Amino acid sequence: MKKLLVIMVMLAVVFSAPVFAGGQQEKAEGDGQQMAKAIEVLHWWTSGGEAAALNVLKEKVEAEGIKWVDTPVAGGSGVQAMTVLRSRVTAGNPPAAVQMLGYDILDWAEMGVVANLNELAEEENWDAVIPDAIKKFSKYDGKWIAAPVNVHSENWVWANQKICDDLGIELPITTWEGYVDALQKVQDSGKVALAHGGQPWQTGTIFESVVLGVGGPEFYEKTMNVPMDQDALKSDQMLEAFKRMETLRGFVDDNFSGRDWNLASAMVIKGQAAFQMMGDFAKGEFLRADMVPGEDFFGFRTPGTKGSVTFNADQFVMFEKESQAKRNAQKVLAKNVMDPEFQVSFNVVKGSVPARTDVPDDEFTIIGKEAMKDLAQANDDGTLFGSLAHGHGAPSAIKEAVFDVVSAHFNGQYTAEEAVEALAKAVEAAK
Ligand code: GAL
User: Fold this and answer.
1) Average pLDDT value for residue range 353-362
2) What's the gap in Å between 78 CA and the centre of ligand 1?
């Protein structure tokens, strides 16, 4: 599949008609300083919190006189956005800039169709302020090919504080047994215990945190990060992980299937549900609803995972453009993405933390401050791992294969034993 795509992309790039502006091929630039009048950005930030955060970037780019042409493709974790991108590139008409995750960035870089950002990166010394764990996905063949704006982490549980107070549930919950007791108490009270969206990437997001909670950092790395060890995938610990998924299945509401992640967050915000297991982009939804952390809502590490962080960074990749004017506009976008002040104003809204390590945490919430501390500590302790569900554990073919098995199991198509077998087979076949 990937080889076919590479051939199609190469042909598209070679034969694609230069992108015309206003029907006329852009005039050859004189001094090379000309600036395109607009820049198209493809992304999947369509929820309230995501759109509010993206608007911060849009306003900064437009303040420099470049019109932001917005191409949103709804669908969490970018699955649909990457499908649209593939069709755009194959048609020889890639957007100027694209939000992208981890291994997808490296795949596109391998195809030789993304812009080299080295000149700007060297001017601004990005190498000194971006952690190695992120740089692994921002650079290809020694060249900067992506501008990282943030770091999200996935092993979180979000709680409605009032429901927990009313039921005498003390937060944070640190053990699996304590979490199941709390879920049961909520369900017995008539509220929805676990707000969930039954989309494969969301179930995959819960699954990887459960795996981390069952087997700890080493087991997570062996099973959720390439090369992904077959013995570990077939282990009793993986069986226990699927059994815990069955326990969680008993705490979601009847209408969970297909629900968007931010609508699950809304159930916790409105007090219809007590918990959501989701990345800290969910925090962006709570903050946008004017909820106060520690009073109206609480975020804590998925029970059993404290001390580890499963991360993903959102990055912007620029696709090669013939015209210097367009390349200059791409440079403006990348420069704004990496601006330290922007990385504060964007991330406090988004629920993530800055990709840069030289940004103060003053303006972040108590949870944001904790997330920044957790990230630095996990980086030092060797317990910072790429989120599989969000593109940082393995290439997308393997990620999708895991999603398929975990989703089928969650929907009752496999027993836990069958799921263990199916997972190991699917991962091997997708390599
Ligand atoms: C993640 C992405 C976040 C948020 C989330 C839900 O992969 O990094 O920024 O968009 O998906 O779609």
Assistant:
1) 92
2) 7
Q: Quick check: pTM over 0.85?
A: yes
Chain segment 93-109, per-residue pLDDT in tens: 999 999 999 999 999 99
What's the mean per-residue pLDDT of the chain? 92
CA of 34 to the centre of ligand 1 (A): 34
How far is ligand 1, taken at its centre, from the CA of residue 188, in Å? 32
Q: What three-state secondary structure class fits 114?
A: strand
pLDDT tens digits, 370-423? 989 999 899 889 999 999 999 999 999 999 999 999 999 999 999 999 999 999
- Interatomic CA distance for residues 205 and 158, integer angstroms: 14
Closest residue (by CA) to atom 7 of ligand 1? 77
What DSSP line would sit under 280-296, residue for residue?
A: THHHHHHHHTTPPBTTT
Question: Which protein residue's CA is at the shortest distance from atom 1 of ligand 1?
Answer: 77
Closest CA to 418 of 426, 198, 231, 227: 426
* Angle at CA of residue 399, ends 396 and 400, nearest 5°: 85
Q: Mean pLDDT across the stretch 137-163?
A: 97
Ligand 1 binding pocket (C-beta < 6 A) is 44-45, 50, 76-78, 101, 152, 261, 281, 312, 314, 390
The domains located in the chain, with CATH, are 2-151+313-365 (3.40.190.10), 153-311+368-430 (3.40.190.10)
- In DSSP notation, 157-198 reads EEEEHHHHHHTT--SS--SHHHHHHHHHHHHHTTSEEE---B
CB atoms within 10 A of CB 383: 20
Distance between CA atoms of residues 104 and 94, nearest Å: 15
* Residue 57 half-sphere exposure toward CB, CA atoms < 13 A: 34
Q: Which among 41, 43, 44 is the best mutation to test ligand 1's pocket, defined by most ligand atoms within 8 Å of the CB?
A: 44
- Starting at the earlier edge strand, list the strands of the sheet with 67-72: 67-72, 38-43, 97-101, 314-318, 147-148
Rg (CA), the chain: 22
What separation in angstroms does the CA of 199 have from each of 159, 178, 382? 21, 26, 31
